[in-house]
Amino acid sequence: MLKELRSIPRPASIRYREGTFQCTGLPEIGGDPCFRRVAGVVKEQLVQDVRAGDPTGGEGKRIVCTKVPDGEPEAYRIRIAPEAISLNAASEKGAYHGLQTLRQWILSEYTGDGFSLPCADIEDHPRFPWRGFMLDTSRHFYTVPFIKRLIDALSLHHINVFHWHLTDDQGWRLPVAAYPLLTEIGSRRLEHRRRGRYSGGFYTEDDIREVVAWAADRQIDVVPEVDLPGHASAILAAYPGLGCSGGPYQVEDRFGIFEDVLCAGNDGLFHLAASVFDTLSGLFPSSYVHIGGDEVRFQRWEACPKCQKRLEETGLKSPKELQSWITVKLTRMLEERGKTAIGWDEVMEDTEQYPLPPSVVVMSWRGTKGGIQASERGHRVIMTPETEGCYLDFRHTEDPEEPGQARLSTVYAAYSMDPVRETSCEAAIMGGQGNLWSELIYAGKIAEYMVFPRICALAEALWTPPEVKDFDDFSRRLPVHQERLDKLGLLQYRGALGKDQ
Ligand SMILES: [Zn+2]
């Protein structure tokens, strides 16, 4: 039997007591009726995890969930006693997180007919409210079953945001009824690497509802991202009239940053945005929508008479400044729909006439500088610096045989990420996030290998209180944890963790 209760992220406190909880089969999960949905989801997970034929063989042993009147919504307390396990939480979120911690221990301990756990009191709560993961489904398309399995594994680590990158130059994945060509043309690209075959795909409305409901059952908020006005080749291939030059355009098969963006002088940009935002509002209950705003090139706007006319109307001097005008308009359109905009840190490059609205949440990716500036200017911030272990498409080691971009991002770097390290405005920092860009990650199994176990390290960096965060302790827990992820069928990296690099 496990002498030590090892899980990732590490709980805030574990105090051991005398005795053992022994259970034949799996325990019943009961208690307050308000936790019925969570109990049902976790019960199914456990049955699946241990492949138990008869899930109800638990000799009447129970996990009893009790709702406490107040307290942090994501916090939980567990008491493991010989006769039962009791779990206290103020909300479904807290109950789910607590049950995931128990799920980890049961995954390790379950042998054919049951499991035992040492008696203990566990208290736990998150350090940051935003613990995110981003999947790029544009550069390569990922199937719904893959995404659901990934979301389930993320929730095992108390990750609570799935940021779904749905559009980019290389493919548009979101169905928009008023613009059918976005998916008809924009979701497929000619692949020179695959002898001129088309590749791609898109999600149907039912697919999206299925993912959102699955994630909600796992207490994960799904935040969609649609990039405007840059990273727009797929839009332009479908609707060339929205560009400055009129084309011809193609869904990009190359990777990089392209000069063709949506024309800032064409009101069609906002008609498209209105339809896209209406679609998003109908499909995604999240209060956030990510509008990209990164890596916009301005050459086309400089040469375009319509964009020049727009400059005169807005009183702006250079085409570059039109970006801030667009961001303000898109933010307002989202506000009208009850949504808050998130943008990559480039949205900070605003103008005096069109300052970035204070409600916009800034996602800092080019290091932490943009995020720190944004927090000082009163914005809320999510840290996801490529320089500090948050880019999960970088290689695990310098070894050129490793998959991923030829830049290094170790498990240790992910663990060491601290969203508030350099800021004086801690309260503005909502948390952090790991991002999987998919230019080079062309299959789900490779994606898993890139994500695990770096996301485990990031999850602990974002959840565990700094007083008990300890990399050496994490590296002792990691092998036990990786065996659990093996049982879930996930491919993982298992080489050097990078502390000495
Ligand atoms: Zn133009």
Q: How many strands in all?
A: 20
Radius of gyration: 24 Å
Shape: elongated
The span between the termini is: 36 Å
Determine the number of helices (DSSP H or I, runs of at least 4 residues): 15
Alpha-beta content class? alpha/beta
What this model shows, in words?
- The chain has helices at 36-50, 92-109, 144-155, 181-184, 205-217, 233-238, 268-283, 299-303, 305-314, 322-336, 369-376, 411-416, 444-451, 454-463, 471-487, and strands at 13-24, 28-31, 62-67, 76-80, 85-89, 114-124, 130-136, 161-165, 167-168, 171-172, 188-191, 197-200, 221-225, 288-290, 340-344, 361-364, 381-383, 394-395, 405-408, 429-436.
- The radius of gyration is 24 Å and the shape is elongated.
- Among the domains are: 13-124, Chitobiase, domain 2 (2-Layer Sandwich), CATH 3.30.379.10; 142-151 and 161-359, Alpha-Beta Barrel (TIM Barrel), CATH 3.20.20.
- The strands form five sheets. Strands 13-8-7-20-17-16-15-14 form an eight-stranded parallel beta sheet. Strands 1-6-4-5-3-2 form a six-stranded mixed beta sheet, with helices on one face. A two-stranded antiparallel sheet has the order 9-10.
- The chain is α/β, with parallel strands linked by helices and 501 residues long.
- Residues 244, 263-265, 301, 304, 306-307 line the site of zinc ion (ZN).
- Residues 244, 263-265, 301, 304, 306-307 line the site of zinc ion.
